[in-house]
Amino acid sequence: MSSDDELAERLRAGDEKALRTAYERHGAAVLYLAQRLLGNRADAEDVTQVTFVAAWTGRDGFDPQRGTMLGWLLGIARRKAVDRLRSAARDERVTETVRAQVVIPDEPETPERVVDRLVVADELGRLPDEQRRTLELAFFDDLTHPQIAAVTGLPLGTVKSHIRRGMASLRRRWEVDGATFGSRSAGPSRAL
Known about the structure:
The chain has eight helices and no strands. By secondary structure, it is mainly α. Helix 1 packs across helix 2 (16-38), helix 4 (69-100) runs antiparallel to helix 5 (111-126) and helix 6 (129-139) crosses helix 8.
């Protein structure tokens, strides 16, 4: 039995010292992979820590018959790094959405309007990617449903469903946060 096989048995049995040994033995390789994927030492260190926490909590899932401990740990690290990249991309989309909000120059920017825009941008960031994208195309790019279907390659019915569900989600969040129409001072009406 190799030392990694013995280590795996100890880890699966809940031996915390085995986790420390696994970290000492394979932590540098996990950190290297995370840094290569993320390009940032601080994020790579976070991913390394999250990888070993996930290895500990999911230790029953390790099967030495399917691969080595190092391979298992690197697989966890790769998934955690991808999650980190997706999260960063989602945060960037929220930031871009907030920046894309058009502010009418002659109307003063009130704190309430800023909060409302942030609530909308945050909720857009929480939507599934396709649903968020259809809403952005409909409202920010002013495309029709058939145009959105053509751009995204989604069936027209799916586009309509994504927009309807996305708007319902935004409406629920808007109501939960107390931002329903009339509940905040929105300044002078633009409908005049």
